[in-house]
Amino acid sequence: MNRRKKIKQLLEAHAKKANAKLAPRNKPKYISKADRLKLAAESDQDSSVACES
Q1: What is the pTM of this model?
Q2: Each residue of 12-39: pLDDT tens digit?
Q3: What is the rounded CA–CA span in Å between residue 2 and residue 8?
Q4: End-to-end CA, the chain
Q5: Which residues make Cβ contacts (< 8 Å) with residue 49, sequence separation at least 6?
């Protein structure tokens, strides 16, 4: 019984991991602090150019 339980437990764990990989990811992709600052600077620059035109 113990051997069966271990095998069953392993198979369930593998199935759970496979399902987790297939599930959609709700978490947004990580953007580093430096990249966030660059994006903010670009958006500020774009908005200032649009205001001047």
Answers
A1: 0.46
A2: 999 999 999 998 888 889 999 999 999 9
A3: 10
A4: 78
A5: none
Determine the pLDDT at residue 49: 64
Backbone angles phi and psi of 27, in degrees to 5 = -80, 130
Question: Is 52 a residue whose pLDDT tops 60?
Answer: no
19-41 b/e (C-beta count within 10 Å ≥ 16 → b): eeeeeeeeeeeeeeeeeeeeeee
14: closest CA among 26, 3, 22?
22
In 3D, which of 52, 51, 48, 29 has the Cα closest to residue 40? 48
Q: Residue 8: is it exposed, middle or buried by C-beta count within 10 angstroms (0-12/13-18/19+)?
A: exposed
